[in-house]
Amino acid sequence: MEERWEERRSRMNDPWLRSRVEDLLYAYAEALDDGPLEDWPGFFTEQARYRLIPWENHQQGLPASLMLCTSRAMMEDRVVAIREASVFPRHVCRHLYTNVRVEDAAREGHARARANYAVFRTFEDGETGVLSVGRVLAEVVLEPQPRFTQMDVVYEAFRIPGLLVYPI
Amino acid sequence: MSSSTLETFWPREDLLHVPYRVFTDAELFRREQERVFQGPTWHYVGLEAEVPTAGSFRTTHIGEVPVILSRGLDGRVHVLVNRCAHRGAQVLREVCGQKKRFNCIYHQWGYDPDGALRAVPFQQGVEGHGGYGEGGLDKGALGLQRLRVEVLNGLVLATFRDDTPPVRAYLGGVWPQLTQVFDGRPLEVLGYLRQRVRANWKLYLENVKDPYHAGLLHLFVATFGLFRSTQRGETLAEPSGCGHLVSHAGGAGEHTEDYARQGLSSYRQGYRLRAPELMRKLPDLPGDVAVSIQTVFPSLVIHRISNSLATRHVLPRSVDEFDLVWTLFGYAGEPPELREHRLLQANLVGPSGFISLEDVEALEVVQRGIQGGAGDTAFVGLGGRGTQPGEPVPDLVNESALRGFWKTWRALMDV
């Protein structure tokens, strides 16, 4: 069960902590939207886990993801595969993050964060559409500089419009 | 649109040219619903593991028809048309769930999970007025339409017709391959991936029956040396045209010079995965199979790609759009490291898959390219003229299975 808001509020009101995590999320979005894509893995620690999960699976407790990286090396492989070994229509994405909430994690020096997101996709012919809307559930290590140790992106669309190339 | 009629637009003797009209003509799409999807054909509905207990259900479609996969209170698996016997409303609106009674929201007609009609509010009217009167409504004769079902080692198939041959005969020569994956062990569903594709559904069936594109379009496999068109493999089309298999053996390391000689951009040297464990293959099913793609006409694909296992369900929505649903699975109670590896290799498939992402792009560029070209045709003459039913074709540079697919489709469609 989700924790009730009254129980959470006391722990989620540290503006300093929140601004550090927000900065990380915004820089992350910039790397994905404006590039270079090669910067994307650098937002994670070496052993970090990244998952892009259909809401359907998340709700039903099914473990499969659309993308799963269990290390930064796998994220680097994903970048090389996109750059060198994938065929798809050229497009740009634009991430919007909002409702960012941050609290101390049980692990010393870590924070837990959640945010809502929307990603728009524009193809070369100028057609813009919503690629994905959902939630980011992440854990961040703060020192020496903030990095994600875990990120679950739960997307809510029942089906992907066409294909999904870049991580969210 | 070409002016020739549905009876004449495709000369009977021509197996080498596919008129583009088959992908763009709404009239053909209508005819397919009746003759292919409600014809003497078997349709994938789901896996038995998706309805584990009495009252569990899942909703899906056969062609355009909404259907329910359910497990009755007696424990048997049923496939029902999801359409209330009263006024046609979809009875179940959820993707999946568990209910003892399936109630229509509109007027609360209630059905058992096997489709039997049990409850009709105010059947006898109110205080002697209205209602259906004595003998005016026979609940036993109504109910949700029940389709003929066969469950094959966990795979649930349904047909609208009584004269469809039994599944085993329908699948013919690809039956042994199918039972390698569906070997009788209980399955565990690992999750779903779904995508909507702006192309005619038959382009997808052609795609999975086409080994020619695999090493050419899918740069990932060629770049990372996992599969090449020069590799050992076979294509097997079943004489009924309803089953079909393309498989590649392991060991892609040879014959790279053939790629270099042909100047193909899809093979590049010098790339190595930093996390090569992605492509590791753990001991799993019998046979030296790197990739096997089986199709069951008209709407099911079963893949075995390294350790990734899935059904792919093709759901046509209109003449130029279909949904593709990937149901990823493993076996109940298998070793955790094998289960984890199947989850990792989900990266290879689906709407973001390293070796499936570009199929959608290929289909959509065909659908766009053929607009306004209804009188024009595709050429599927690679590897001869025939369809070689029943004999394995020992290479991956042929289009015999595409010809076989069209032969089956044409016979059903009478075009």
Structural overview:
The complex is a heterodimer of chains A (168) and B (415). Chain A is of the alpha+beta class. Chain A contains 4 helices and 7 strands, in the order ααβαβαβββββ. Chain A has a 6-stranded mixed β-sheet. Chain A is globular. Chain A starts with a helix and ends in a 7-residue tail after the last strand. Chain B has a 7-stranded antiparallel β-sheet with strand order 12-18-17-16-15-14-13, sandwiched between helices. In chain B, strands 5-4-3-6 form a 4-stranded antiparallel β-sheet, with no helix packed on it. Chain B has a 3-stranded antiparallel β-sheet with strand order 2-11-10, with no helix packed on it. The model of chain B has no long low-confidence stretch (mean pLDDT 88). The chains are: A alpha+beta (168), B alpha+beta (415). Chains A and B meet through α3, α4 and β7 of A and β12, α7 and α10 of B. β7 of chain A pairs parallel with β12 (187-197) of chain B, so a sheet runs across the interface.
Share in β-strands of chain B: 25-35%
Arrangement of strands in the largest sheet of chain B: 12-18-17-16-15-14-13
* Number of continuous helical runs of chain B: 11
Q: Biggest interface and its residues per chain?
A: A-B, 35 and 40 residues
Relative strand content of chain A: 35-45%
* Secondary structure: number of strands of chain B: 19
Helix content of chain A: 25-40%
Tell me the span between the first and last alpha carbons of chain A.
26 Å
By oligomeric state, this entry counts as: heterodimer
**Major β-sheet annotation of chain A:** 6 strands, mixed
- Count the E strands of chain A: 7
Secondary-structure element series of chain A: HHEHEHEEEEE
Order of helices and strands of chain B: EHHEEEEEEEEEEHHEHHHEEHEEEEHHEH
Mean pLDDT metric of chain A? 93
